[in-house]
Amino acid sequence: MNNPASPAVARTERRHRLRRWALGLVLALSVPGGLSWYGHSLVAPHPEQFASGVSRDAPALKTIRQTALAQTFLRDFRVQEHWSSCGPASLRNVLASLGRPVARERDLFQGDTLAWLRMAVTGMTLDEVAALAESTGIGQVQVRRDLSEQALRTLLGSLSTPGRRLIVNFDRAPIHGVSLGHFSPIGGYDPASDRILLLDVTPGFGVQLVPTALLSEAMNTQDPVSGRSRGLIQIDAGPRDAD
């Protein structure tokens, strides 16, 4: 996996993670409904806040949903099981699209209960989700940061490459009007309208067409936990019999 964090960045990320743990535990113990209330209050969809050009019902959406890549996802697409598990949910959907289904998000952690509980309380960073993907043995996993719009379009144009999948990490604010880090897989690209098929794993948001420029803006933001730029995870799966 490329783009490893420097020791200084890793120390900063650990400090931020401890703060996330503290916040999560306070919410769990002091708020009625605990973490489920906290997550729901942040991510409840408000379509009237969606940015111009983001669509859940455009004619182009119906067309792109029928493409081969989109169909590999939609045959067994599942929303996230927990408010904090958008990263593992995205990875589970990628694996299912490649014919390697996982029954539960927790199974991705391969018995590491501490890592699972940490995710449940604090969520995950881009590098953490990439490491989780790499641990499945799916194939080559790359973290891509600071992509220009044109570089993003070029990468989107390569989605027909067998076994290639993309998981995007972005701030919802430019797209959905609420500032919150999020993960979702990309299910296709429509060059005619220059829009991306975003397979949002949060219940209620649904499959959307998002302008490339808008998703690029949302990706090129800083994750306050890691102190690093958001971006995407590129997965190039190896042959099934190589597992």
Précis, in short:
This protein is 41% helix and 17% strand. The chain is of the alpha+beta class and 243 residues long.
Word description of this protein:
- There is one protein chain.
- This protein has 243 residues and is an alpha+beta fold.
- Helix content is 41%, strand content 17%.
- A 6-stranded antiparallel β-sheet has the order 1-6-2-3-4-5, sandwiched between helices.
- β4 (195-199) and β5 (207-211) form a beta hairpin.
- α4 crosses α5.
Q: Which key features would you list for this structure?
A:
six-stranded antiparallel sheet, Cathepsin B, Chain A, 243 residues, alpha+beta
SSE map:
Layout: H1 7-30, H2 34-43, H3 59-65, H4 68-74, H5 86-97, H6 113-122, H7 126-135, E1 139-145, H8 149-156, E2 164-171, H9 173-176, E3 181-190, E4 195-199, E5 207-211, H10 212-219, E6 231-237
Antiparallel strand pairs: 1-6, 2-3, 2-6, 3-4, 4-5
Keywords: Cadmium, Membrane, Metal-binding, Transferase, Transmembrane, Transmembrane helix
Pfam family, one: Phytochelatin
Region (Disordered): 221-243
Q: Write down how many β-strands occur, each being a DSSP E stretch of 2 or more residues.
A: 6
Global structural class:
alpha+beta
Uncertain stretches of 5 or more adjacent residues: 26-42
> Main sheet, how many strands, which sense, barrel?
6 strands, antiparallel
Radius of gyration: 17 Å
Q: In the CATH scheme, what's the topology name?
A: Cathepsin B, Chain A
CATH architecture: Alpha-Beta Complex
What is the straight-line distance between the termini? 18 Å
Superfamily at the CATH H level?
Phytochelatin synthase, N-terminal domain
Helical content class: 40-55%
* Mean pLDDT across every amino acid position: 86
Q: What is the number of helices?
A: 10
Query: What is the CATH class?
Result: Alpha Beta
Tell me the series of helices and strands, N- to C-terminal: HHHHHHHEHEHEEEHE
Strand % is 15-25%
Coarse morphology: globular
Major sheet: arrangement of strands: 1-6-2-3-4-5
